[in-house]
Amino acid sequence: MFEQAVWSPKPCVTCLCSGGEVLCDEVTCPPLRCHFPYTPTGECCPVCMDTGPASHGDVLDFSGDSPVANDPDPVTPDLDPILDPVVPRTKAEIELLNREEEERLLKKEKRRKKQKEEAERQRRRQEERRRRQEEERRQEERRREEEGLRIEKEERRQEEAMRLKEEVAMKERERKLEEERRRHEDELKEKLRELAELEEEEEEEEDMEWLLRGDVFQMFPDEPSKEDLLPPPLAEPTDREEEDGKGVVVRRPGIALPLGCDISDVTVTCENAQLTNFPPLNIPELKSLSLEGNSITTIPVGAFNGIPNLESINLGKNKLTTAGIAPHTFKGLKFLSRLYLDNNLLEKVPPDFPSTLQELKINENHLKGIEENSFQGLSDLLTLELEGNVLSEGNMDPLAFRPLSQLSYLRLGKNHFRTVPQGLPPSLLVSFYTFYGNSLENYILKFLKALFLTTTF
User: Which UniProt keywords apply (predicted)?
Assistant: First the structure.
């Protein structure tokens, strides 16, 4: 259907297509005052067919309504409509009426179009107003979102600055803690050294008798001569010594040491000497023995019978296992105060340490648990280091530390602790590095830091 198309779906009804809508209007016929109205073919309204003379008050009526007037003529109110003949309209009059009706319809259509255009303008104004309001709302939301992002960015920046500040402060605290720990270790080592020197002086003042093997004894002079303290120049081993001693070199008269070993005063050092077995030594006055960096796997029974007065033993960086250490191996060393077993293959703490032990290090081994009697009798132990093992609160007996009444320094770092183990002795000086490198809960770690800062500073 084309715009502004006009058609008549039925007689006396005219329809118009405008703006996508169909507007229809029915033709209103004028009233007739005749006896025999007639509707011609092709016409919409009826006409009068009376042939008699028409009265001066007769009017042409095309409505087809009753000949009785709804509104009597005010000029001739006494005329009888039945006797009043109606003169039929001519074709020109009918065309005039049709033109008038078309003009009326056109005016009505113009009014309708004008009203529709006005309604469209109103709709457009409302749509524009609604669009402006929507745009303002979006701009306001965008402004609020940008403000929120700005505030969030500022908060993140402040949090990052605070975090960096806390990290710097934490590193500074850790540095101070490390310095304090080292100072504490140095002080402790100095005390141990002074104690060892004091014991050595007391021993030098006494005329002591050293137990060698069973019932064999040897007496030493009160003041050893300079010749006895300094070893003579090393001599090249003879063919017989190499054959019988299997690499044994005589460094002092009566003292045989393996190749790669050195002796100085009362100290024997066999570090990185490629030893695979514990060397047999018979030096009763020996007080310090270092076998670090070899491949020793076992310590047999009676390994220390010839060196019973040892005060310090370093067996670090070997291949010792728990089964490879004979029972009661260290028990007979009545003067042993320091024992280092770092970097071996121990899965359990060796049993039967001497009660004189003050410093024990079993770092970087394969310890899988601490039993109740692991430290039995070590009431004088001051320092215990068990870093780098497989220990946790689940495989450590709560009563294991009960015998350590004098323990002041403990390191359990680089293990698998998530909580602080139970049964720690009250004499212990808790340090941040006591559990450094574990997976302790955050609040426990903060508690230990605060506790260490409180007790240290």
Answer: Leucine-rich repeat, Repeat
Instruction: Indicate the DSSP class of residue 21.
Output: E
pLDDT in tens, 163-196: 999 999 989 988 998 888 888 888 888 888 888 8
Rounded CA gap, 5 and 9, in Å?
12
Residue appearing with tokens 């002795």: 425
**Dist. CA 370–CA 397, nearest whole Å:** 6
Cα–Cα dist 32/408, whole Å: 132
Share the mean pLDDT of the chain: 79
Q: Rounded to whole angstroms, how far apart are CA atoms 186 and 338? A: 15
Query: Which stretch of 2-6, 100-104, 325-329 has the lowest confidence by average pLDDT?
Result: 2-6
d(CA 80, CA 55): 10
From CA 217, how far away is CA 28, in angstroms rounded? 154
Helix 91-205 / helix 442-456 crossing angle, nearest 10 deg: 40
Give 204's pLDDT tier (boundaries 50, 70, 90). Answer: low
d(CA 208, CA 216): 14
Q: Would you list the DSSP string of 373-439? A: TTTTT-TT--EEE--SS---TTSB-TTTTTT-TT--EEE--SS--SSPPTT--TT----GGGSTTS-
* Number of other CB atoms surrounding residue 216 within 10 Å: 9
